[in-house]
Specification:
The protein is α+β, with helices and mostly antiparallel strands. 54% of the residues lie in helices and 16% in strands. Among the domains are: 2-62, no CATH class; 66-173, Tetrahydropterin Synthase, Chain A (2-Layer Sandwich), CATH 3.30.479; 268-309 and 339-367, no CATH class. It has helices spanning 2-21, 96-103, 107-127, 134-137, 142-156, 176-248, 250-265, 283-286, 295-317, 344-348, 352-362; strands at residues 22-25, 29-35, 38-43, 47-50, 56-62, 66-69, 73-75, 83-93, 162-173. Strands 6, 7, 8 and 9 form a four-stranded antiparallel β-sheet that branches. Strands 3-2-5 form a three-stranded antiparallel β-sheet, with no helix packed on it. Strand 2 (29-35) and strand 3 form a beta hairpin. The longest helix is centred in the middle third of the chain and has 73 residues, at 176-248. It is rod-shaped.
Length: 367
């Protein structure tokens, strides 16, 4: 019976020793074998591993990508507009031996504390550098700034045995105490930009209007010049036509002008003219003598009569002897002209029927 207990104790001791000598490495972890606090080996391959029981210990670290959320970070860009930034990072343990030496027994919690300090410092350094404004943080340049923060934090965290894979700015906002002042400043800036835009637009409009006015004046001047040239040529042609018509029949031209004047002045129902009784305006209305029969016409008729008389005298001289003085015989005083010949007064006297027809055509009733 006693031997059975001893055997059972031996088996239990062997099992306990075997359990302390064997351990399993998970595929999601990396293991360190420590002996009296010193690193003896690194187990990165998943599976069953052996250590010295009761002397060596095993410490495992997560081999997956880990997340680190920082506290709210207050930054001041170059435009002196304070911002509250909420950032997070993704990192991974790449060297477990270096990681163990850097953080000691603190493990991941101590490593994340140091990483958070590095991340906050680099975020403030990058976002507060020259040339970085609040507008650039909120614009497309945001990705470039995050890449800069990641690279700077990665170089500072190499001694921890970790690799920072990515840094993101999750949220960017204004402090509550500066929100109203910032909005007012933004409104003033937008109003200033709007005023500048309106001023530039008004300037451009003035230039366009000035150019349009100049073009209009030039076109109008050119058109008026061409119109004056055309009008002058037309007036010259009209005057030439009038002169030609006046030269052909002066009496008819004066008669036509008088009729046109009657038509323009006596048109309508309330035409009233106040003229002298002996005015030349009504010569064609009140006289049976055409106004065109002037002294020149009388002279022309006399010359015609004299030519006719001379022709008759030359025919009579063929039968009678010539006078000694060789002159032409003057017609006897009181002698009557031959039948068929007209005196100057008869030449100038118009036909009564034609005078009556002209008078009927030229009369216009007046009030």
């Amino acid at each position: 019976m006693r031997k059975g207990y001893i055997l059972l104790a031996i088996v239990a001791a062997v099992l306990f020793t075997a359990m302390n000598a064997l351990f399993v490495v998970d595929e999601r972890e990396k293991a360190l074998v420590l002996q009296f606090g010193q690193i003896r080996s690194v187990k990165e391959d998943p599976g069953l591993a052996v250590k010295i029981p009761f002397i060596q210990d095993v410490v495992s670290y997560d081999d997956r990508i880990l997340s680190l959320d920082t506290d709210l970070i207050e930054v001041t860009p170059s435009d002196d507009r304070r911002l509250i930034v909420d950032a997070f990072a993704r990192y991974r343990i790449v060297d477990v031996e270096q990681f163990r030496r850097a953080v000691g027994v603190g493990g991941i919690r101590a490593a994340e504390s140091r990483l958070a300090a590095i991340l906050v410092a680099q975020t403030r350094a990058v976002l507060g550098s020259d040339g970085v404004t609040s507008n650039s943080i909120l614009s497309e340049d945001r990705s470039t700034l995050m890449t800069r923060i990641r690279d700077e934090a990665r170089s500072r965290s190499d001694d921890l045995g970790v690799e920072i894979l990515d840094v993101r700015l999750k949220d960017t906002a204004l402090p509550d105490q500066n929100l109203a002042a910032t909005f007012e400043r933004m409104r003033a800036e937008r109003e200033r930009e709007a005023t500048d835009e309106r001023a530039r637009g008004e300037e451009a409009a003035q230039r366009v209007r000035a150019q349009a006015d100049r073009t209009r004046v030039e076109l109008t001047s050119e058109a008026e010049r061409e119109a004056e040239i055309t009008r002058g040529e037309a007036d010259a042609e009209r005057n030439g036509i009038f002169a030609s018509a006046f030269g052909k029949d002066a009496e008819f031209f004066e008669f036509y002008r008088s009729l046109a004047a009657y038509d323009r002045s006596l048109k309508g129902d309330n035409s009233t003219l106040i003229l002298s009784p002996d005015s030349e305006f009504f010569d064609y209305l009140k006289s049976d003598q055409p106004r065109g029969t002037t002294a020149r016409e009388d002279q022309r008729a006399a010359e015609t009569l004299r030519g006719s008389a001379q022709g008759a005298g030359s025919a009579a001289s063929q039968d009678e002897p010539q006078p000694e003085d060789g002159g032409n015989a003057a017609p006897e005083e009181g002698s009557q002209p031959e039948a068929g010949s007209a005196t100057p007064e008869q030449e100038a006297q118009p036909d009564a029927a034609s005078i009556s027809a002209e008078g009927d055509a030229s009369e216009t009733p007046t009030n």
